[in-house]
Amino acid sequence: MTTETLPPAVETTATAPETAAPTKSSLSLTGLILSIISIPTGMAPLAIVGVVLGFIGRRDEPAAHNLSSWAIILGFVSLFGWILLGFAALMFALPFAFGAWMFGLADFGWMGYGWS
């Protein structure tokens, strides 16, 4: 019988790399997504909810300050942009409607009002 000697076990002191704690940014991210969606669709309630979530996220999630700031900015841009576009469309169409009414080109007799 032969006796074999095994080398002593090597103990390592290496530890796993530390990972950063995940940041909570769900409110800010949701606000940003809703604000972005409200721009092409023109849905004012989405813009309002996006702005509100941006302000809540700015208060409750300091790590997501940039996301919440963009949610607020884009929500206001969407909201006021669509309001300005609607106002401009009204100002464009109003002279045509008023002119047609003034010169008797708008005949509402077919609607049963008897204004013809």
Can you walk through the features of this model?
- By secondary structure, the protein is mainly α.
- The protein is 61% helix and 0% strand.
- It contains three helices and no strands.
- The longest helix is centred in the last third of the chain and has 38 residues.
- It is rod-shaped and about 120 Å long.
- The model has no long low-confidence stretch (mean pLDDT 81).
Instruction: Sketch the topology as an H/E string, one letter per element.
Output: HHH
Low-confidence stretches: none
- Beta-strand content estimate: under 5%
Report, as a whole number of angstroms, the end-to-end distance: 124 Å
Contiguous helical run count = 3
* Structural class label: mainly alpha
- Envelope shape: rod-shaped
- E-strand count: 0
Rg from C-alpha positions? Answer: 32 Å
Question: What does the main sheet amount to?
Answer: none
